[in-house]
């Protein structure tokens, strides 16, 4: 069942979740690979970014060819709820499992399609400590606040990172004198 948009958001360092998340990812990667052959299964989201702040959930991107998308979507529909707070397009859809521990988000995307971005965002944050810190600072601003407001701010940040216009503010400029 999808969580309501009026929930509040809370973050902790990913190191507190790392072992449990890695174990669950390996389990799900094997299950998903068997269910959706020819797919690339990626651990994405903040628990995949060392040193980041996270909600402690597991996000998985399942990248698939365009011709295999419909069958893969039908298989995932049988096991997971659609995440109505996630994205949905002709070539991408998000599913969720709030009954598992940790909470799992599965993002089915067509390779090269409109929603095929999570792994790119993850890779850019891993490659840029300043961007990761900026993302963590965004999370700190929304700690204990509305999930919907956080998601809006996050979406804008993700788009800036992916379109190349994100240039993090140096830490020295963000400190009050």
Note down, in words, how this protein is organized.
- Helices cover 42% and strands 19% of the residues.
- With 177 residues, it is α+β, with helices and mostly antiparallel strands.
- The chain has a single domain, classed as 2-Layer Sandwich (Beta Polymerase, domain 2), CATH 3.30.460.10.
- Strands 2, 4, 5, 6, 7 and 8 form a 6-stranded mixed sheet that branches. The protein has a two-stranded antiparallel sheet with strand order 1-3.
- Helix 3 crosses helix 4 and helix 4 (129-142) runs antiparallel to helix 5.
- The model is unreliable at 1-5 and 169-177 (pLDDT under 50).
Mean pLDDT: 89
Secondary structure tally: strands: 8
Which fold name corresponds to the CATH topology?
Answer: Beta Polymerase, domain 2
**In the CATH hierarchy, what is the architecture at level 2?**
2-Layer Sandwich
**Rg, Cα atoms, Å:** 16 Å
Helices and strands in order:
Elements: E1 12-13, H1 18-35, E2 40-44, E3 53-54, E4 58-64, H2 69-79, E5 81-82, E6 88-89, E7 92-97, E8 104-110, H3 118-127, H4 129-142, H5 147-163, H6 171-174
Parallel strand pairs: 4-8
Antiparallel strand pairs: 1-3, 2-4, 5-7, 6-7, 7-8
Helix pairs in contact: 3-4, 4-5
Q: What labels describe this entry?
A:
single chain; 177 residues; alpha+beta; two-stranded antiparallel ribbon; globular; disordered N terminus
